[in-house]
UniProtKB/TrEMBL annotation:
<dbReference type="Pfam" id="PF09084">
    <property type="entry name" value="NMT1"/>
</dbReference>
<feature type="signal peptide">
    <location>
        <begin position="1"/>
        <end position="25"/>
    </location>
</feature>
<feature type="domain" description="SsuA/THI5-like">
    <location>
        <begin position="58"/>
        <end position="250"/>
    </location>
</feature>
<keyword id="KW-0732">Signal</keyword>
<protein>
    <submittedName>
        <fullName>ABC transporter substrate-binding protein</fullName>
    </submittedName>
</protein>
<comment type="similarity">
    <text>Belongs to the bacterial solute-binding protein SsuA/TauA family.</text>
</comment>
<dbReference type="InterPro" id="IPR015168">
    <property type="entry name" value="SsuA/THI5"/>
</dbReference>
Length: 317
């Protein structure tokens, strides 16, 4: 994956001028963000003008591309059509284990109460052990739901191999849960909120009750990070401002979900989730993500944990 992910645009107001065959126009760095239809801060900041203002200070600009599902966002960056996106720390650990060209530049950390396991109405499930021999919907092998399921069972001293995992795509979680196709789901954000808001559902555990290291993280191509650190620092500073805006007005997060079609019932549940903070990828964050890598090896998601220090840029320095 060594595709070039750098893009520069020529300022239209300058035009392309030549003197003796030498171009006099200046290149303008453009930070291209492939954003997701979730309320992470790289998504919510796009309507505020914050990134535009911060990047203008260093002679750069921003372009938002999306909303894209995580898979499409990943492909958009790896194809060279964008520079950055957002994901979960677990997926980031997976990418790092594959020696990817992504680096993390901002950690979006929260308590974990927006991730968990919820039993479906009519399933008869009231505890984790009741899931033995039953189907549990997850978002993919080694993804957030799978991680939460493994971690919860480990902490409870239970055998996760006694559960039948069923991979569901984003559009099928709600129907599978409501129709009884699965006895429970292990998921996060909208899917978790939808399950919690379903009459008769039972929350079995949320990640804030577990030693989780699974949060959201903002990642960028290594080439962009190395060539345009000043612009990336401006983006980081903008995300810090956006997090402060959310801390002052937590309603902006459920409002963002409403923008993407969430019902009032779902938005009400989301409003009860912890409001994230933006933190740098400093020594503390690296230690947390290395711990996550160790868990990923233990759960069989990856063979060897990467040294996360090789895949981050600390913009607090």
């Amino acid at each position: 994956m060594h595709s070039s992910l750098r893009r520069t645009t020529v300022a239209a107001s300058l035009g392309l001028l030549f003197s003796g065959g030498v171009a006099l126009a200046e290149d303008v760095v453009t930070f291209r963000a492939a954003y997701l239809p979730t309320a992470n801060y790289l998504t919510t900041v796009r309507t505020t003008g914050i990134l535009e203002k911060e990047l203008a200070k260093v002679g750069a600009k921003v372009e938002f591309i999306g909303p894209l599902d995580p898979f499409s966002a990943y492909n958009t960056v790896t194809s060279g059509s964008a520079d950055a996106s957002s994901t979960g720390t677990g997926y980031f650990v997976n990418l790092s284990a594959q020696k990817s060209d992504w680096v993390a530049f901002a950690l979006e950390k929260y308590s974990g109460n927006s991730q968990g396991i919820v039993a479906a109405p009519g399933s008869g499930v009231t505890s984790l052990k009741d899931l033995y021999g039953k189907k549990v919907g997850i978002d993919g092998e080694g993804a957030t739901g799978d991680y939460i399921l493994n971690l919860a069972f480990k902490e409870a001293g239970l055998d996760v191999s006694q559960v039948e995992k069923v991979t569901l795509d984003t559009t099928s979680f709600a129907s599978a849960f409501a129709s009884g196709q699965v006895a429970a789901i292990a998921s996060y954000d909208q899917n978790l909120a939808n399950a919690i808001s379903t009459e008769g559902a039972k929350v079995l555990v949320t990640a804030d009750q577990l030693p989780t290291a699974n949060w959201s993280i903002h990642i960028v191509s290594r080439e962009f990070a190395e060539k345009h650190r000043e612009a990336l620092k401006a983006v980081y500073d903008g995300l810090v401002q956006e997090a402060a805006r959310a801390q002052a007005n937590p309603a902006l997060i459920p409002d963002a979900y409403r923008e993407f079609g969430a019902s009032e019932g779902l938005a009400k549940v989301v409003a009860g989730f912890d409001t994230p903070r933006i933190l740098p990828l400093d020594a503390t964050a690296v230690a947390d993500l290395n711990r996550l890598g160790t868990q990923y090896v233990e759960f069989g998601f990856i063979e060897k944990a990467p040294d996360i220090a090789d895949y981050v840029v600390d913009l607090s320095k």
